[in-house]
Amino acid sequence: MKELSRADWQTLAVLEILTGAVSLDVLERLAPLTQQELCSRVEKFVSLGIVEQAEDGSIALAADLPQHIMRRLLRINTKKRAASLAAQIQRPDLQDSLPVSARIAVLAKAGLDYDAALLAQAAAEKSTQEGDAQRAIDLLDTACGIAGRNLGDPLWDALFVQIVNELCRLRIVHAQGIREVPSLLEREKPVAVRLGDRRSLARIDLVSGLYRYLIGETARGLDSISSGLQQAEDLGDEDIMAISSEFRGICYYLKGMYKEALDAFEQVGRMNSPQSGKRVPTYLPEYLASSSALGYISALLGQYHRAVGLLDSHWRRARLKKNDRNACFYEALLGIVLIIMGRRSEAYSHLKAAQKEALELDNKQALHVTRKGLAYHAYFEGRIEDAYWMTMNMPYTESIGPQYNWPVHLEMLYAFERQDLLPAMPSLAFEQEIRRVLEGPNHHLRGVALRIRALQAQERGADHEDVLALLQSSETELHLTGDPVELAKTRAEMARVKLAAKDRPGARNYALMAWEGLSGYGQDFFPDDLVPLLSIGLDQRPGTRRQDLAERFADLMDGFIPSTDGDELLNRLVAATSRFFGAERGGLFWHPGGRDTGRPVLKAACNLEKADISSELFRESLRLVLRTFRNGEPLILKGAPAGHDLDGEPRVLSIICLPVVIRGETRGVLYLEHSCADDEGGNLDLDRDSALRIARQVSFSIDRILRYAGMIEADRSRVVSARPSEDGDVASGAIIGSSPVMQILLALADQVALSDATVLITGETGVGKELLARRIHEKSTRKDNPFVTVNLASIPDTLVESELFGHEKGAFTGADRQKPGKIELAHRGTLFIDEIGDVPLSAQVKLLRVIQEKSFSRVGGTRTIVSDFRLIAATNRDLTRDMASGRFRQDLYFRLNVVPLSVPPLRDRGQDVVELAREFLRHYGRQYHRSLPALTREDEKALTAYSWPGNVRELRNVIERCAILSSGDRLTLHLPAAPRPAFDSAFDGTPTMDEMQRRYILHVLDLTRGRLGGPGGAAEILGMKRTTLQARMRRLGIGK
Q1: Keywords, A to Z (predicted)?
Q2: Percent of the chain at pLDDT above 90?
């Protein structure tokens, strides 16, 4: 178009390279036009149909742009132009206002694929944190595409593995595009093999197995999960074991081994608790997640009070956080547990409310659970035909067949079969399901199926021995699951068989076994027809004597062997105590120093969070905790009013508060609670003597845990404090210097030390940058915690990430053990990164994110590690020049340069030279056991006249040499001649071409401090390959 000027085309080219709509404000900063010119041009572009303008004023190229215009714009947008634009958009003001998709597109068109992929990955992580899963998946798809076309380089391979891992995780967790997972894993596996990344190979099998289970291929899924778990066991480090915990829980769950499954999911809960400060990413969809699993697995184990407490707590917490999708799901699960417990009216209300909300939210998983629960409700109410039609019309979200672990499901199908209800269910035909379960891996369902087979055999008139054999097989299977209710039901049927065979003693024996297994739930679940077999009535049923309770609890406490992780062990203690007493939730409330501060600290918890104890609902409970702390006596309340719940209904709780007395002083209170006051309440029915014995046992166990953890922490502190100071006043680590320039610097450093601001220390080599960093640390609130130093100049580029972030065992070839990184070691202390300018570009983005978020993952790991560190960085390079040349990221520089401190060279410090020399003399006199004479006036003049190109480090070496070589009553100073370059100009002395090359290479090596490779290395500056430079140096006689 002739009416378009060169500036017009340049402006349109900016829109083309940004690929989407941008604001006029952003375009003004990138286009070669003033604001006034741009506004008039936009009107013209719109009138010509080249540009479209949205209602918010943003503009983009027209969707139907003519091909000849697009071809011209593509000719303008060369890679060089895109690179120039990419440099511009690195400015913080543009980063905030430019859509991330536009920034990714610019970087990709500029050939900066790695930066583009990292940006997409970071943006996806942010979207995940903000709850926008679909956007996160779209961004990761983009990152995966970029990384996928650059495979072959180890750096790209490692990034591709990270991206695919997170992409598969999000697709499964949010059930979005789950069918893409197998192809992604197939692409990832050979890359992980090439890297020697055993961790990712283990994870690939775990995720593949989970996918197989989710689509209905349970047997294949279990095989893959088992393979992945074995690989994780072989690696054995903390991170891979943490990641595999929920898969271990799923593995046991699929096998119907619920005790083991509960242990695995509890471990996941402890690792993700607020007290742990860690977060292990979940791979499970919401209906299988550990928070849900703990609830329904507790119910499958007959721990109904705990199941109700967990699910009720999660439901209310989700409501408070406005997370309606999860709240709906938790309420549906809560309804099913209440049905199994016999609280059907309450269950029905929850299920109907959850069904209504699931329909409104289009939450298919929750809707499936609610419809299943309503069918169970109809079945228990005796409305078999209603239950049948509800099951027939149930919306399945699984791809191949239904998935269920509730035994009532099989019993309900058996009831349908006995009533000959038609038409037959295509996906839930009774015989088909019984055969599938009997051939499957689940002990729990297999035990129920065998019991049903025994009932069928009985109806056919089979021999008593044949029926009993089936029931004995059922007993064997159910014994493995830990479910006392289903085991008791099988034993009850065994008692009936014995009765029918006229074996009354045998029948009574099985009836008593059934009764004892049901414990506190006997009245609810024990069949009336077998009551006469018991020697005593229901009001005096056999049970555990109270005096035995304290003994059994003591045995439980003895199992808590102290470990280095005291916090984790305390959480386990609270969880185990809650489970023992049938409490829904519990907490260890602690008063620091034993003082009554009015509000205790929640030191460890089970299903109780800090947000809970701050709520109005917990006010009365907190008052009871404080009362127990003040009087030091156990408090036992049953059916106590506790205000109203979120719906305004009155709450009634049973509560135990046990004082924790350590060395004669009450330090805390163990709080246990459940809300089923109309039930027996498990073991919460205590007398005072038992409560006192149990309180003493709790106190003893907690004291032992804290003592051991305290000794370990003291050992760590001694190790940290024993670390030698590398620079400084050789004796005390103090900075010596009374010159005005140093006094100003030290005053600034002391002021900065009072904050946690990031500090960038600049200065020549040898001026004492690390010493200044140590001073800041020692004068800060972090002084009692580690000061961790890392010198990047001494680390190969390929190992920088491992040094900073650490790596997991098997993360790459040669990673034969887990290694924590320097950032992790600096938790609660100070991290000092020397020669920050030597961080490779590939690690700069990750370092920037760690500085911003204070969280990271080790190389090869996925577990998020939080490190609360204060960063001090140092360099002798000109980072502004490195930014201009593209060797150092602008955004990282701005993050580091919050408080800049410049250490002056020694030549600018006047008489400080003499003060330092005297201190070094005293030090080396003591070290070498020599009596050295003092500096003379001539010595002092010589010292101050010298320019000290090596700064304090050079002075120290000179004085040490002097202390060794001097004799008599006078020092022998061996100062170098006044330093001058061997040549003032490259052309001095009419050198040969080889000599000129030699001089210039030496000059570049001086600039890079001898560094040949990597960003900013001599090879890069000279435009040569590293190997070519090394060959040239050998030919010219330059040593390295």
Answers
A1: Activator, ATP-binding, DNA-binding, Nucleotide-binding, Transcription, Transcription regulation
A2: 23
